[in-house]
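dude i think i finally got it to work??
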Amino acid sequence: MNDTSTSQQDAWLKMLAGCSTDLFLLDLDGTVWGDILVVLNEQFGPVDPDGEKRWKKHDRAFKVDGTMTNGAHLEAEYRDLLEAKTIDEMIAWLKENHKLVPGVKNFLAFLRSMGVTPVAVSNGSLQIAVPMLKFHGVEMPIIANSLRFSDDGMFEAMEFVHNEDDGVRKGELAEIAAANGYRVIGCAGDSKGDVCMAEATAKLGGLVLACGDGGLTAWCEQNEGSIVSAGSWLTYDDFGQVTRAVQARLGGF
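look at this
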């Protein structure tokens, strides 16, 4: 979507019109399920002459060195993959090998039972995420980036929800939702790309769930007492570990 127009905001609000007033925003890769780009690159991605998987260099350039934007590192990883396999081939492999984070289906059902709509906010590609949501039996509205192909099927570029620097500005989406009468009950993420969503959610009074020991957990630890309080974030490896805390938080709204 064009960052200079209102199309992104209009599309987001149109999606939210089909949701309840209370929202829970969830990243997908590394949060709801195993990171699709990681598992695909480990299986099919190129290995550089030094013996290192190339995706790890792209990942490090964005998350550690700051020499690549979020969008640029995502596009580079998808480009490597699409030189090796088609979308259909990757999805077929994922259906045999891809795993959900334990407890996620029960957690999503719990949210719905409490009148909260889970919404996927992902920097992945719609062409892979949508069929994998369907395959796993996970129902959520989703906003994500997209892959653009030429008429002859060649990968051209990623089309970002916002821009190449950010991919999806998840925190801005949370703020837009709140400004239009929705309550962001909480969010779940795992990495650097989810920090903006976590910060906005915390400022809106929501609960932050950080999966595993990745970049989001590190950020929460570093900012506890300032941006997030000790009781406003939790880490998990199984959604069953955080359901009670979310239920308690819902009781306080």
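The beta strands are 22-26, 116-125, 142-149, 155-159, 183-189, 207-211, 233-236.
im so relieved honestly
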